[in-house]
Amino acid sequence: MTNSTTAQLTPKGQRTRQRILDVSMKLFAQSGSNATSLRGIAAEAGMSHAGVLRYFEDKDALLLAVLEHRDEMDLSRALDETGAVRPEVLTGDGPYTALRTLLEVIERNATMPGVVELFLKVATEATHADHPAHDYFVARYARLRRLLEPVFDAVLPTERPAGITAAEATEQLISILDGSQLQWLLSGGRIDLVADARRYLELLGIDLAAASTR
């Protein structure tokens, strides 16, 4: 955890913390977390090592904050401050837009192998209940389910393959996304992450290209 919560920081402190997160995200994406040190992040951010430690007590706290920051960027358009699905996501073209946005996020992740590696590394370690990031990952997947289940409920055709439910489609898509990321890293990027996700949606009878022209 951080030494100071964001709410306790002054506006200048919040900007400094944000700069550290942005720099960390960039360096993790370029070089991976193992090859990136707190001193390197501090230098890139124009700060001292001690200055970074005022905001993040150690590297593990910074790694978790980077993942939380990424989630905030990815989910803020679909979930409100309480974690509830925004009404517009489930009306009109909203559910299809949510899935198209998900594909855009996957495509962006494919430009940041270091961040994907960080996510998978910490997620695996966090399966232990006493890990500092355990609660974060439990909450993260709960948020994804809370978003995707009503989205799938809105877009799945009446004649669903094998009678699949929205909850089952959600669990399968999450598994496909996480598994594809691992295989993508192991293959040196030869797997097409977006194509895998799009193909699964098409197997469910969801055509996002056709939906966008309705």
Give an account of the 3D structure.
The protein has helices at 11-31, 38-44, 49-53, 59-75, 94-109, 113-125, 134-155, 166-186, 193-203, 208-211. It is an all-alpha fold. It folds into two domains: 1-75, Arc Repressor Mutant, subunit A (Orthogonal Bundle), CATH 1.10.10.60; 80-214, no CATH class. Helix 6 packs across helix 8 (166-186) and helix 8 runs antiparallel to helix 9. The longest helix is centred in the last third of the chain and has 22 residues, at 134-155. The radius of gyration is 19 Å and the shape is globular.
Our count of helices gives 10
Largest sheet: none
Q: What series of H and E elements makes up the topology?
A: HHHHHHHHHH
Radius of gyration, taken over Cα atoms and rounded to an integer in Å = 19 Å
Averaged pLDDT, please? 89
The termini sit apart by 46 Å
Envelope shape: globular
Query: How many E-type strands?
Result: 0
Compute the number of structural domains.
2
Helical content band? 55-70%
Quaternary assembly? single chain
